[in-house]
Amino acid sequence: MNTSSISLKSSGFILAVIYTIGHLFIAMACALIITGAALNLAAIDAIIEPLINGFWFYALHKVWVESKVEYTEVINEFKGYKFFSKINGLTLASIYTIGHFCIAMTCASLITGVALNLAAIDAIVEPLINGVWFYLLHKIWSYKFMKNGYVKSGMLSSINATVLPPKGRYSKKDNQAL
């Protein structure tokens, strides 16, 4: 793949696809090794559990955002909105993580038929391995862009740059050729 023709924005999508494929294989391998489940059950667990957790993330985020808007715009005395409006990002991430763990454990137990203790081990080990996979993939991807001189001072930001700049001198002010 020629990095000179890839925008930083599209590279994020490509990176997400590569990560997702690796994530599925890691999840299946963990389910196979830890729970001793059959390959078809491990594959089902590796697909179903992230989908459910995606909905969990969406629902939690939606409640949090709506509570911020509602509580800010109209002083709403509903206890749930009042509670969620005071939650910071770290607390929200903690609530999500606890929910994620419960969902992963329940899916592993129901889909593969293993005891909750094995499902709990799978729900802990698999995200840890995926964290290492994410770190390694991000390091390799970042290095590939930095090595080719597309990103200065070690920062890879698809938010601030939409297209890799062509070689040449540019004005920082308006990002146009001199």
Structure explained in plain terms:
This protein has 178 residues and is mainly alpha-helical. It has one domain (7-147). Helices cover 71% and strands 0% of the residues. The protein has five helices and no strands. The protein has helices at residues 8-35, 39-73, 79-85, 89-112, 116-147. Helix 1 packs antiparallel against helix 5 and helix 2 (39-73) packs antiparallel against helix 4 (89-112). 16% of the residues are buried.
Main attributes of the structure:
178 residues
Percent strand equals under 5%
Total discrete domains: 1
Q: If you compute it from the alpha carbons, what radius of gyration comes out, rounded to the nearest whole angstrom? A: 21 Å
Q: How many helical elements?
A: 5
H/E series? HHHHH
Helix fraction?
A: over 70%
What is the overall shape? Answer: flat
Average pLDDT for all residues: 75
Question: Structural class, from secondary structure content?
Answer: mainly alpha
Report how far apart the termini are: 29 Å
In short:
The chain is mainly alpha-helical and 178 residues long. The protein contains five helices and no strands.
Walk me through the topology.
Blueprint: H1 8-35, H2 39-73, H3 79-85, H4 89-112, H5 116-147
